[in-house]
């Protein structure tokens, strides 16, 4: 099962990070996101961060929808 | 999250006036669609079909039987994600094997299997490596760690499957007519969009990589109907907040180091070349099949079980003659009814049926 | 100092058994029938009675917000409350595993005593047995309870009518998640208390306000979804809940998101689903919110004629889906 919820990194130590969501903290592996910094949001799969979230990118999809308004 | 009302997106989809059938190939999409009641909100002209997106469901019967046989070996602890536990094999399931004395431990991260092996040095721990490209890199990293830390009593039954080859095989069968794909979010977070370009090049079909919220899926559907209307066949990313076109290079590198592609046996699709993974030679010591060369005899699927057709999208779960009568979540005949990501389980739990 | 533990001798029926009863059990419960130590408790009561029994095997036996003792007493009281019966008498059988620390047993007994007082019920009879190490999991408790039915007609699914309102007395899933965390330690810092509590005083306040209740059920194993599905099936009506009206605490929601669990299937041990005529719904909500056990009560849906026998959920995006009963185990041994 894929978990869509982004979690926030609050601490990084070696290949592990402490992440938080809704006040809950969990330890995850950061092997695949070496670029991740404290404060970043990541997507987690079975205990591993697999992607660092980019807020900017999300907006582009919305832009695309606005374009669609010209369609009757 | 996204600040657009689902109703607005739905109305935009309707206004396109496009008639189309789209397939999702991710179990979490299947569940999200069913749980939100999305199908019935769409115009009648837009149909959604579930494909081979549930890792447990596409696992061949003989492989499930192998896992169960392992759990029955004295001195063996089978470590697995929870989904696999109730899946019926030919004779029995891991759950029943555990009830009659076999050792089966549910883990939440593959890394937990390292601790399990350390905690039981006199026993053999076998991890059931089931999953698509999202899970395979995690297992690969765990295998590397087991090797680096020299953990002798841990091995892996590698049953990984790769999504793009299965999609190609499915399309080559020409059993169903499709107008595009809702592409998996986290598989794509690892792979990027490139491995799906064959859809455009070989089949002139569009695909949109999307997230798991119903809102995400609605946006992806909008993007798909728009492509259809414009007669385009591009691989687009709706789930930009998590997916880059190039995927996750670190994860791909680790997966490549540990695994090599090999043919795999899919329920419903049979043997597909280069659609699975095998441990590379330096990691053979951690291959459960080499460590426990068990002969599995007489594996067969329940006669009339429609899981194969359901996984290929040829029939809907409700069209299976066993659905809801012989086959229910409490006494499942096939894996699609038992896995939390199975399309039969989703249909049974969330959709209205007589 | 060496920790005192339960041994097979405590189950022998001889002096150690007597010692256990006289030193650890009797002083904690203010109950004449219990202190008489007869083979049966001698009771006085008359009227329309309700009688219920339940077994408790939760693992671990202590969890944030409760323990197996509080759970066992609350469980039987809540089953009585679900038929609007005022709990009067309780029995408890304790199955102790050899090796249980006496200090742990004391804590459980203390908690049982406190819960009895809260709900105004008397422990009138009981039993203890000891099993060999490995034959149990520290402590199992079975409780039975007798109560007096306070509403005519008795609340039951057959009374549910189309148009009735569906209420839940508080946020769901807190017991299930608290026990899961106690068992698996998924999170480094989850500070979630089980909702485990005897809900009779809350139900009593509704009855005292003269509000007629058509049906009630406590959403324990299988959670809210299973309870609604059962009530729909038993009443032959459709119970429809609205996703965004169901009270779910922030912590439970975040934990479910992170674990991929559905909060609608997590157990509660101190909540009640209440179905009553729509005209009484607002008043009932006010009464519930005025009681400490019901401050976060919500009106979550209504009963419809069709589709028959099915519970439905209106989803946030405007869709509709079935709420099926839980199949298989989501979490083992939560109560």
Structural features, described:
- The complex is a heterotrimer of chains A (72), B (354) and C (335).
- With 72 residues, chain A is of the alpha+beta class.
- Chain A contains one helix and five strands; from the N terminus they run βββββα.
- Chain A has a five-stranded antiparallel sheet, with no helix packed on it.
- Mean pLDDT of chain A is 82; it is low at 68-72.
- The mean pLDDT of chain B is 94.
- In chain C, strands 8-10-7-11-9-12-13 form a seven-stranded mixed sheet. Chain C has a four-stranded mixed sheet with strand order 1-6-4-5. A two-stranded antiparallel ribbon of chain C has the order 2-3.
- In chain C, β2 (62-63) and β3 form a beta hairpin.
- Chain C folds into two domains: 8-149, 2-Layer Sandwich (60s Ribosomal Protein L30, Chain: A); 157-322, PurM-like C-terminal domain (Phosphoribosyl-aminoimidazole Synthetase, Chain A, domain 2), CATH 3.90.650.10.
- In chain C, α3 packs parallel to α4 (102-119).
- The two termini of chain C are 33 Å apart.
- Chain C has nine helices and 13 strands.
- The mean pLDDT of chain C is 94.
- Chain A binds chain B through residues 1-4, 6, 29, 31-34, 43, 45-48, 50-51, 53-55, 57-58, 60-62, 64-65, 68, 71-72, and chain B through 1-4, 9, 12, 15-16, 26-28, 31, 81, 83, 108-112, 134-135, 137-138, 141, 184-186, 189-190, 211-213, 216, 219, 222-223, 226, 229, 238, 240-244, 248, 250-251, 254, 340-341.
What is the CA-based Rg of chain C, rounded?
Answer: 21 Å
Low-confidence spans of chain C: pLDDT under 50, at least 5 residues? none
Strand order of the largest sheet of chain C: 8-10-7-11-9-12-13
Q: Alpha-carbon distance between the termini of chain A?
A: 38 Å
CATH architectural type of chain A: Roll
Overall outline of chain A: globular
Total DSSP E strands of chain C: 13
Work out the strand percent of chain A: 35-45%
Beta strands of chain A, count: 5
Unreliable stretches of chain A (pLDDT < 50, length at least 5) are: 68-72
Look at the helices and sheets of chain A and give the structural class.
alpha+beta
Widest sheet, order of strands of chain A: 3-2-1-4-5
User: What do we call the CATH topology of chain A?
Assistant: SH3 type barrels
Question: What Rg of chain A, in angstroms, do the CA atoms define?
Answer: 15 Å
Order of helices and strands of chain C: HHEEEHEHEEEHHEHEHEHEEE
Order of helices and strands of chain A: EEEEEH
* Average pLDDT of chain A: 82
Average pLDDT rating of chain C: 94
């Amino acid at each position: 099962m894929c978990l869509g919820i982004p979690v926030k990194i609050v601490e990084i130590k070696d290949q592990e990070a402490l992440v938080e969501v809704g006040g809950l903290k969990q330890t995850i592996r950061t092997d695949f996101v070496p670029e991740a910094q404290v404060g970043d949001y990541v997507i987690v799969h079975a205990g591993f961060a697999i992607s660092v979230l980019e807020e900017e990118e999300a907006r582009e999809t919305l832009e695309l929808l606005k374009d669609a308004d010209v369609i009757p | 999250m996204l600040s657009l009302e689902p109703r607005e997106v739905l109305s935009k989809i309707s206004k396109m006036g496009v008639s189309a059938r789209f397939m999702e190939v991710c179990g979490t999409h299947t569940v999200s669609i069913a749980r939100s009641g999305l199908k019935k909100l769409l115009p009648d002209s837009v149909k959604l079909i579930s494909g081979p997106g549930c890792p447990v469901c596409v696992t061949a019967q003989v492989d499930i039987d192998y896992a169960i046989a392992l759990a029955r070996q004295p001195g063996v602890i089978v470590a697995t994600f929870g989904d696999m536990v109730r899946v019926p094999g030919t004779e029995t399931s891991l759950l029943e094997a555990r009830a009659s004395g076999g050792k089966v431990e549910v883990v939440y991260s593959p890394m937990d299997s390292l601790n399990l092996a350390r905690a039981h040095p006199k026993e053999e721990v076998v991890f059931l490596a089931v999953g698509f490209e999202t899970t395979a890199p995690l297992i690969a990293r765990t295998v590397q760690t087991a090797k680096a830390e020299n953990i002798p009593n841990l091995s892996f039954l590698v049953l990984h499957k790769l999504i793009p080859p299965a999609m190609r095989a499915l399309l080559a069968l020409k059993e169903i007519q499709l107008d595009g794909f809702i592409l998996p979010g986290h598989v794509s977070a690892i792979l990027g969009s490139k491995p799906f370009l064959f859809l455009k090049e070989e089949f002139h079909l569009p695909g949109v990589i999307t997230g798991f919220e119903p809102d995400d899926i609605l946006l992806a559907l909008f993007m798909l109907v728009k492509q259809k209307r414009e007669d385009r066949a591009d691989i687009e990313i709706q789930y930009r907040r998590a997916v880059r076109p190039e995927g996750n290079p670190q994860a791909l590198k680790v997966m490549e180091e540990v695994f090599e592609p090999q043919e795999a046996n899919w329920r419903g699709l049979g043997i597909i070349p280069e659609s699975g993974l095998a441990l590379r030679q330096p990691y053979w010591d951690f291959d459960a099949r080499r460590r426990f060369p068990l002969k599995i005899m007489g594996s067969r699927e329940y006669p009339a079980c429609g899981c194969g057709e359901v996984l290929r999208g040829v029939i809907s779960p409700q069209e299976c003659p066993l659905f809801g009568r012989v086959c229910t979540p409490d006494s499942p005949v096939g894996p699609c009814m038992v896995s939390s990501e199975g399309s039969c389980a989703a249909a049974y739990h969330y959709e209205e049926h007589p | 100092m060496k920790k005192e533990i339960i041994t097979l001798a405590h189950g022998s029926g001889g002096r150690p058994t007597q010692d256990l009863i006289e030193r650890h059990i009797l002083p904690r419960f203010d109950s004449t029938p219990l202190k008489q130590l007869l083979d049966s408790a001698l009771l006085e009561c008359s009227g329309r009675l309700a009688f219920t029994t339940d077994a408790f095997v939760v693992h671990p036996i202590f969890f944030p917000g409760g323990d197996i003792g509080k759970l066992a007493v609350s469980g039987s009281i809540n089953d009585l409350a679900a038929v609007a019966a005022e709990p009067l008498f309780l029995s408890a059988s304790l199955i102790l595993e050899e090796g249980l620390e006496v200090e742990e047993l004391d804590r459980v007994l203390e908690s049982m005593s406190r819960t009895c007082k809260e709900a105004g019920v008397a422990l009138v009879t009981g039993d203890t047995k000891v099993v060999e190490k490995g034959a149990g999991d520290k402590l199992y408790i079975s409780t039975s309870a007798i109560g007096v039915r306070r509403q005519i007609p008795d609340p039951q699914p057959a009374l549910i009518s189309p148009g009735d309102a569906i209420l839940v007395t508080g946020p769901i899933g807190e017991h299930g998640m608290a026990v899961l965390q106690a068992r698996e330690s998924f999170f480094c810092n989850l500070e979630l208390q089980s909702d485990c509590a005897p809900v009779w005083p809350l139900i009593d306040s509704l009855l005292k306000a003269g509000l007629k209740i058509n049906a009630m059920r406590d959403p324990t194993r299988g959670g809210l979804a299973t309870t609604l599905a059962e009530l729909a099936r038993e009443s032959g009506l459709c119970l429809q809940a609205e996703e965004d009206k169901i009270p779910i605490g922030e912590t439970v929601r975040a934990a479910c998101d992170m674990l991929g669990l559905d909060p609608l299937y997590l157990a509660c041990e101190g909540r009640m689903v209440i179905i009553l005529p729509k005209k009484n719904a607002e008043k009932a909500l006010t009464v519930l919110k005025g009681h400490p056990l019901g401050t976060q009560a919500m009106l979550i849906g209504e009963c419809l004629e069709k589709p028959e026998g099915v519970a439905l959920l209106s989803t946030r995006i405007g869709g509709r889906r079935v709420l099926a009963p839980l199949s298989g185990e989501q979490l083992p041994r939560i109560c």
